[in-house]
Amino acid sequence: MATDQDAASVTTASQQPAQPVKPAGAPADDPTAPKKLSGAELKAKAKAEKAARRAQAKSSKETAKGEAAVSSSPGQLGPSAGEVKANKAKGKQDGTGTANKVTTIKAIAPFPVPEPKFTIPECFSHLSMPRRIPMTQADKDVHPAVLALGQQMATFALDESIARLKATLLAFKKVISSYTTPPGNTLARHLTPHVLNPQIDYLIACRPMSFSMGNAIRWLKLQVSKIDPDVVEHDAKKELCDSIDNFIQERINIANLVITQRAALRIEDGDVVLTFGWNSSVERAIIHAYTKIGRKFSVIIIDEPYDRRGQMLAKSLAAEGIRVTYCGDFGGLRSHVHQATTVILGAESMFNNGSMYARCGSCDVAVLAKQLGKQIYVLCETINITERVATDSLTYNEIDPERSSAASFRLLYDNTPDRYLSLVITELGSVQPTSVPDLLRKLEESN
To answer: At what angle do helices 161-177 and 144-154 cross, to 10 degrees?
Structure first.
């Protein structure tokens, strides 16, 4: 009686081509040895095993999804790192993988993507808003120093215009020092479009540039374009870095010193000086008048109810022995302005038509002070003066990302018309707000 194995052997033999007949006297085949398969049979067997593994893997995934969907803990994000490692190690010891072993895997929630708090109305879509960009999303050509600077600007760790300008120039100095001109290029033609522009684009994406930064970057690009292609790269880079150092010294450090001295002379004995928020130039001028000139006066600080940066100024002045009155909001603005004899404000920028671009709330203080007949002095470096013109607070501004909602949004700056200002104090002199264009002409002649 034939067995099933014999029947399978007969069937297989009938399907294969005839084998050569062994000569007489040749040793018989070992019945216990495994049967040798042909190439076609091996290929078919491998294909069948692969299909079986795919089907089993698919079944495993569907089982895991089903178990994850009915998991009892909705807050469970997934297995711990120890459990994952243990499962992997166990799979290796058993000699099995995920293809032939069903493992229960809980659903892992995707990384949460922060949704914008509000949508800017279309009529205000031209206004920008600082935002923190992950470093992993920055262009590969952005220098590490510029990456760190962009994060500081986006989070308002660096907020004042002059502070952002100085930090930007120092970061660009590091970029230039680490730059190497590729073969077949010149520094004057390659540095700006391929190296400086990616740094500038990243900073703008983090937060809109201040007017002083825009002026300084235009100056820097002009210096790069003036480099002779025949100059050795090392000497050209040194020349650019020295130019940046001289720019910082002349247009920032010395300018601050001159403005401090000139503004301090505007303070007399017995004056009541009123200021708004915090500004580094205003702080230096008040301290210089008290400690270096020896004037005896008091200070009133009106602070905005959001950032409360005026508290820093109040602590700094009080530490020098100056009598300070601090008001945390605009509730007592009229009475405080009525008591003041002099109003000193710090500007982020001055427009070509003489209007002042400053922290939101400065316009309210200036308008009321002018109505009450007070002198309003504005401290502003010439690097902060722009050729642009603005007649309102919506032409150029920034939106506060932290204090805006779907119903409303807050602007970081406001615009004060020239008729509410008495004098603009710069390192080139003290001029009327309407004479700001004359300062621009002086700067163009000096350049």
So the answer is: 170
pLDDT band at 34 (very low <50, low <70, confident <90, very high): low
Residue 254 has pLDDT above 60, yes or no: yes
**95, two tokens:** 């000699």
Handedness of CA 410, 310, 211, 240 (dihedral sign): negative
Q: In whole angstroms, give the CA distance from residue 310 to residue 316.
A: 10
Distance CA 305, CA 360 (A): 11
Alpha-carbon span 222 to 442, nearest angstrom: 18
Using an 8 Å Cβ cutoff, are 411 and 140 in contact? no
The predicted pLDDT at position 59 comes to 63
pLDDT at position 309 over 50: yes
Whole-angstrom distance, CA of residue 369 vs CA of residue 274: 10
The answer, yes or no, to whether residue 429 has pLDDT greater than 60, is yes
Do residues 216 and 157 touch, judged by C-beta distance below 8 A?
Answer: no
Q: What is the pLDDT of residue 83?
A: 47
For residue 343, list its beta bridge partners.
Answer: 274, 376
d(CA 362, CA 365): 5
Question: Which domains occur in the chain, in start order?
Answer: 129-254 (no CATH), 265-446 (3.40.50.10470)
End-to-end, the C-alpha distance of the chain in Å comes to 112
Residue-wise DSSP of 400-445: -SSS--SS---BSEEEE-GGG--EEEETTEEE-GGGHHHHHHHHHH
Quick one: DSSP state of residue 30?
Answer: P
Torsion (CA) 330, 324, 414, 375 in degrees, nearest 10: 100
272 pairs with which residues across the strands?
298
Q: Token pair for residue 290?
A: 């008290």
Among 409, 356, 354, 327, which Cα is nearest to 120's? 409
> What is the side-by-side strand order in the sheet with 349-350?
349-350, 356-359, 413-416
Q: How far is CA 446 from CA 352, 437, 440, 442, in A?
A: 18, 14, 10, 6
Rounded CA gap, 227 and 242, in Å?
A: 13
Measured at the alpha carbon of residue 381, what is the angle toward residues 281 and 147, in degrees to the nearest 5? Answer: 85
Residue of 334, 357, 343, 350 whose CA lies nearest to 282: 343
Q: pLDDT of 372-409, one tens digit each?
A: 999 999 999 999 999 999 999 999 999 998 888 878 88
Looking at 16-80, list the stretches that DSSP marks H as alpha helix, in order from N- to C-terminal side.
39-69
Instruction: Please list, in sequence order, all residues whose beta carbon lies within 8 angstroms of the beta carbon of residue 58, skipping any fewer than 6 positions away.
Output: none
